[in-house]
Write a structure and sequence with these properties.
single chain; alpha/beta; 5-stranded mixed β-sheet; 3-stranded antiparallel β-sheet; about 25% helix; globular
Length: about 210
């Protein structure tokens, strides 16, 4: 396991309401070291970045099958991970691409060494998700990933009826919970405790 170092959290940071509760996510660099924290108020509102900018992502990307979703929104990454879909959020979308590329390459190389298969065989599909906000960050990011050697990089936006992927996914979940049809949206039941009923929903975002 990678050695991690947890930076001190400034308790008296003026942005933190000490009477409020927060979801706390570790922020990692390309070497998988913890370099900061990202706080999201449980009551809603903007996130708070402590320490350095980096990646909010699982410690081991290889634990998740198939597609890796890349987003500039920590809320979206948390939602995808809740569904059992691997996701990485960049806390600095414009400046964080080199960290993202380094983290992906390290993960793919580790999988290649463990399986003794060529590196290109272990690459996952990497889908950069955007929003309907007239920003082409997802397109530019996917091109940079491709230029860096990611063989299966692509991009996607949510349907035009939704501003962002969070809204789209939550609408899917609301529909799913109101239906007795477990095949809705290509979702399947999963017997693994660590996997979500919506694991296979990850395939839908690559269509």
């Amino acid at each position: 396991a990678a050695t991690t170092s947890v930076p001190p959290i400034r308790v008296h940071d003026p942005r933190i309401d000490e009477s409020a509760a927060y979801y706390t996510f570790p922020v990692r660099d390309s070497n998988n070291l913890i370099i900061g924290s990202h706080l999201i108020p449980m009551s809603g509102g903007d996130g708070i970045a402590l320490g350095k900018h980096g990646l909010v992502c699982p410690e081991q990307l290889s634990r998740y099958p198939d597609v890796i979703v890349v987003t500039r929104n920590v809320h979206e990454a948390a939602l995808f991970l809740t569904f059992g879909i691997c996701a990485i959020a960049l806390t600095d979308p414009e400046g964080g691409i080199p960290e993202l590329i380094g983290r992906l390459k390290q993960s793919f190389d580790d999988e290649s060494k463990a399986s003794r298969c060529p590196g290109e065989c272990m690459q996952h599909r990497v889908i950069v998700v955007g929003a309907n906000d007239n920003c082409d960050w997802n397109v530019r990011a996917s091109r940079l990933l491709s230029a860096a050697g990611m063989l299966y990089a692509g991009w996607i936006c949510p349907p035009t009826d939704f501003l962002n992927v969070c809204d789209w996914l939550l609408a899917k979940v609301n529909s799913l919970t109101l239906s007795e049809d477990t095949k809705l949206f290509d979702a399947e039941e999963s017997e693994g405790e660590s996997e979500s009923i919506l694991v296979t929903f990850g395939n839908a975002i690559t269509c």
